Amino acid sequence: MKVKLIVSAERYDEIAETLLKAGIGISEKSDLILSERNTSINYLIGKKGDVIYRIKTSDISHIESFSHEVIAYTYDGEYRINERLKTLSNMLDPEVFIRISNSVIISTEHIKSIKPALTRKFIITMQNGAVVDVTRTYYYIFKEFLGI
């Protein structure tokens, strides 16, 4: 059996060693995730073409889901992610990343501007030029998160 390990950098080696001694392997592609409470990840594994990259979460402006495909956007381009959006929203730092619709998570550190729309929505322009909408369902959550 293999698990994906999401723990603090300080405890990673200790926990990984314990799991390996118990015969449990560690893999980024595993369907099972073992995580510490209140720990968020610092990087994601993504693909650009056939090349696999380790992407710092601080470099990610937003993540979008299109049907069964999840794309992380950075200044360097777009990366396909193997995680579901719901899983990512639980793994990313909740003080930085917020879900703004059923298909988009953004990094509040990469927001360039916020424009209110007429129908209880916001239009957000990210620093990389991307434009995303806060839907009505997430409108009040977003307002409270930013304190606006």
TrEMBL record:
Keywords: DNA-binding
Source species, domain of life: Bacteria
UniProt key word Transcription regulation: no
Molecular functions (GO terms): DNA binding; phosphorelay response regulator activity
Residue stretches spanning the membrane: none
Domain annotation HTH LytTR-type: ranges: 44-148
Pfam families tied to this protein: LytTR
Protein name: LytTr DNA-binding domain protein
